[in-house]
Prior knowledge:
Layout (H helix, E strand, L loop, with lengths): L2 H15 L5 E3 L5 H6 L9 E3 L2 H18 L11 H16 L5 H16 L19 H9 L5 H10 L1
Parallel strand pairs: 1-2
Helix pairs in contact: 3-4, 4-5
The structure holds zinc ion.
The site of zinc ion (ZN) has 6 residues, from helix 6.
Amino acid sequence: MESVGAHRIFSRSVKSRQLKYTTYYGDGDSKGFLSVQNIYGINSVCKLECIGHIQKRVELRLRKLKSKTRGLSGKVKLTDAFIDKLQNYYGIAIRSNTGNLKNMQQSVISALFHCASNKNKSMHGQCPIGKESWCFYQQGKLWQMGKPSVKNTLACQIIF
Ligand SMILES: [Zn+2]
């Protein structure tokens, strides 16, 4: 939304609708938000961003970093597939922790370590634990810690 249009819409809201907008949805460097941020008083309007746009921004910055930095691209380095995977986990981390910044930061870090793990180097220590976890490793670990698999359950029922 252009800044002139945003300012026009927000400024006429009180007069024509007897309401004040409290939030503005915009992207990172939105000039429209700057034009309405203090329209009803100091910081009277807060800005919200679309998670999809934030996800896309991460992808673009990683691709830009990859193209500008020597030695980052390669088979076992920052591949396009890895960037896509990281972008998806980043989105999951944000969506599953809306309203809780500390958990969101922790989830983003754990998603990075999760994506960087492989069969030779496991880094799932920060991944969420439990059957609802998005981490296959932690889910598998839960099953190994005493909860029998479906096959074992059936076998136990047959034996006893
Ligand atoms: Zn993990």
